[in-house]
């Protein structure tokens, strides 16, 4: 302890040891065994490089680029790299954000502000679009008009999109690729629809923007067509650097074809006695740490390095896809264009997909359950990264073993009383007592019953198949409400 420090202060090494102990309970962030949330290049030196760069600039504040010109230079370098990679013409501009959701929010905000003459603005999106756009609609008072996608390919339907565009539309959106199924929407056709109506067109390439251009150069199987700012009619595009650019979280880039299109998401206020607030993003204070870490990683890996990483991730995804489709009872939804897979049941094979997820977790592999929506059945999401190259057989073997165990266990059944309760619950009037009853019926000890200790942390089950089956049976609105309430239980000291 430092002489003169507070008596309750904890020593540096003790704090770090406690942190390491806490981290042992997390899903692994390296090695390719967590197939959602994290992106692993397999390049061991990137962690140290990013950490050192983050430490060097973590105390700098992007709130004022004139006070911290290093941050301005690094942001312009990263935006310039994104413009060159993603088909931007001279005059294209961009902004660094905290992640893909903020980039999507700002794209919607800029489109709304660019059409202040529209009293009831709306955006037209495929039903597979990332939920960030619905969040934008919620926050900014913009109606979200969802258009059903092709029920087999899961790609956006240009004709249906054209029919949905009207005088209130301020933005059309397409995905490259969609998160849920890993397929690229027909961007040129969607952009043509938007252009004909004088409407902006945004491409959500948050997850694919730093890998698809390299796959296109390679002419990969089913290689992606044009999707970026080079497509006539595309006015903005988002790409996350903390995904396939393998940078530390959280850094994303929102590109606009010209400065006028970007202006709407800037905010300025001089109507108070302090400094004039001027923000290009939703944040005011912005740590220089994530920016510097991303700048260092992108410079270190380089264009050729990213081409090799993209090739490795795509090859791994193809081999894993082939291995999984050879497992009796499983299929891959759609025809994925890049590095994301959605694995569903093939027919009625007599086992439960959520049990497969539990069995994979027991074997050290973490996948993300996705619930039924329109023509998309329940499935397991797999994000394949470069580190999975060379270890495809290990994952496929684990899937095969998990399916065998799930088949032996049989399908998960939902208690009749619980199913009946879910059927009558109204998400808009759900009470705390009803919520507690649902969780209790699902086998969760929430610590919210009579006489319970309100400070006791909720105990999560080791296996989630029963919980996921319950959530799959709920309507989307009820599922939203149940999970929001559940999140509130998790976040209590």
Automatic annotation (TrEMBL):
Keywords: Aminotransferase, Lyase, Pyridoxal phosphate, Transferase. Pfam families: Pyridoxal_deC. Its cofactor is pyridoxal 5'-phosphate. It comes from the Bacteria. SUPFAM superfamilies: PLP-dependent transferases. InterPro entries: GrpII_AminoAcid_Decarb, PyrdxlP-dep_de-COase, PyrdxlP-dep_Trfase, PyrdxlP-dep_Trfase_major, PyrdxlP-dep_Trfase_small. GO terms for molecular function: transaminase activity. The keyword Ribosomal protein does not apply. The keyword NADP does not apply. PANTHER family: PTHR42735, SPHINGOSINE-1-PHOSPHATE LYASE 1. Belongs to the group II decarboxylase family. Sphingosine-1-phosphate lyase subfamily. This is Aminotransferase class V-fold PLP-dependent enzyme. It comes from Prauserella alba.
